[in-house]
Structures are given as structure tokens and as C-alpha cells.
Automatic annotation (TrEMBL):
<dbReference type="InterPro" id="IPR027278">
    <property type="entry name" value="ACCD_DCysDesulf"/>
</dbReference>
<feature type="domain" description="Tryptophan synthase beta chain-like PALP">
    <location>
        <begin position="23"/>
        <end position="209"/>
    </location>
</feature>
<protein>
    <recommendedName>
        <fullName>Tryptophan synthase beta chain-like PALP domain-containing protein</fullName>
    </recommendedName>
</protein>
<dbReference type="Pfam" id="PF00291">
    <property type="entry name" value="PALP"/>
</dbReference>
<keyword id="KW-0663">Pyridoxal phosphate</keyword>
<dbReference type="InterPro" id="IPR001926">
    <property type="entry name" value="TrpB-like_PALP"/>
</dbReference>
<comment type="similarity">
    <text>Belongs to the ACC deaminase/D-cysteine desulfhydrase family.</text>
</comment>
<dbReference type="GO" id="GO:0019148">
    <property type="term" value="F:D-cysteine desulfhydrase activity"/>
</dbReference>
<dbReference type="InterPro" id="IPR036052">
    <property type="entry name" value="TrpB-like_PALP_sf"/>
</dbReference>
């Protein structure tokens, strides 16, 4: 597949890094009319909830690099972790199914809210294999055993927050720059992003510096 993502167009020598097309890009940018009026300044949102037709959000951007590495290494099974209602686990499972890969989720209990119940049903629907662990120590041990015994397995860090995953948001910064250059959106004074592991933020900071 021809690699024409913004990051590789700017730095062609990086095309040796594994990459596979997953997201619907570029994600659109919308002006928030009522919010802009209330705050008396232009507020725009980049719709990364639309990165994937089934399960969007920030994870699919990371997966374009992580799953490319999985496929390059010929792995068939993904091992990852979270709580029983893990959004990361669900996003991983949805993406894995697209590539014919299986997903093993090593999870810990959490309160059974409506959202958690919905995610559990989705885990089942998309074919995830859940392993309920008693505590973090047992989970770590069980994952290591799985990875040792199943040489076709590949460990994906929580939130896909790894150097490869972070490249997804380095590329996102270049994607935003292209939208600014095409006058789809004015150049922003500030960017606001929600964070957990900070990998999304780290990728954006690096990408904006390079762009």
C-alpha cells in the first residue's frame, strides 16, 4: 500500500516504519457555533470520534502503526489488558477482527455500570476472549505465560501507548497542519486534548514541533 500519510509526505525516509491504513482521514473539523458565541471566541473541534466507522476515538490512530508491526511480524493473537469494561480492549478487539486476528483481554473487575455492561456485550459480540484476573500480579503472570507459550501472540500496551502508537498523533499534527494550509480551519492559538497515559499528548507535542 502506498504510504501517503502527512508524516511520510513530510519525511519520506520514515516510510520504512510499518504502517497500515485503518482510520478514516482526515477527520473533519467543525466550528462549535453556540460555544463560540457563549465564550466570544472561535472554538473548533477535530472530530476524532470519527476515526473508525465502528469504534472511533484516539486508539485507531495509534493502531495504524501498532497493527502494522503486528502484521509485519506475522503474529496472530493480541494480548492486552484493562478492566472488564475496557474501552481500549474493545477498540483493540474491533480492529483485530478487521485483520482476522484474535484478542485475549486480561482484565480486572470494576463496578458494573451501564457503560461497562454495554462494553462487555460488545467484547462478546466482536469475539474477544476475556480472562478475569484476581489482582494485577496474577494478571501480569498470566499474560507472561500466554506470551511465552503462544509464540504467535503480541503484547499491546495499555492504551497502545508505546513509541509506535505515539506516532499516530505525530501524524495527526501533520494532518491538522494540512487542514490549516487548505484554510479548512484557522490556525489555533491553543489545543486542548483529554489524556490518560499522555501518549496522545506526547505525539501531538512532537508533531506540532516538527510541523
Amino acid at each position: 500500500m502506498v504510504k501517503e500519510i502527512p508524516l511520510f509526505k513530510k519525511y519520506p525516509k520514515l516510510t520504512n516504519i510499518p504502517w497500515v491504513s485503518i482510520i478514516v482521514s482526515p477527520t473533519p473539523v467543525h466550528k462549535m457555533g453556540q460555544t463560540s458565541k457563549t465564550l466570544k471566541r472561535d472554538i473548533w473541534v477535530k472530530r476524532d470520534d470519527l476515526t473508525h466507522t465502528i469504534y472511533g476515538g484516539n486508539k485507531p490512530r495509534k493502531y495504524e502503526f501498532v497493527f502494522a508491526d503486528i502484521l509485519k511480524k506475522g503474529k496472530k493473537t493480541i494480548v492486552t489488558l484493562g478492566s472488564i469494561g475496557t474501552n481500549h480492549g474493545l477498540a483493540t478487539t474491533v480492529t483485530a477482527r478487521d485483520f482476522g486476528l484474535s484478542t485475549h483481554l486480561f482484565v480486572l473487575e470494576q463496578p458494573l455500570s451501564e457503560g461497562v455492561r454495554e462494553n462487555l456485550l460488545c467484547h462478546h459480540f466482536f469475539g474477544a476472549k476475556l480472562h478475569l484476573m484476581r489482582n494485577p500480579f496474577h494478571r501480569k503472570l498470566a499474560m507472561k505465560i500466554k506470551l511465552i507459550l503462544d509464540r504467535s501472540s503480541y503484547f499491546v500496551t495499555l492504551g497502545a501507548s508505546s513509541p509506535l502508537g505515539t506516532l499516530g498523533f505525530v501524524n495527526a499534527a501533520f494532518e491538522l497542519k494540512e487542514q490549516i494550509e487548505k484554510k479548512i480551519i484557522p490556525e489555533p492559538d491553543k489545543l486542548f486534548v483529554t489524556v490518560g497515559s499522555l501518549a496522545t499528548c506526547a505525539g501531538l507535542v512532537l508533531g506540532l514541533e516538527l510541523a
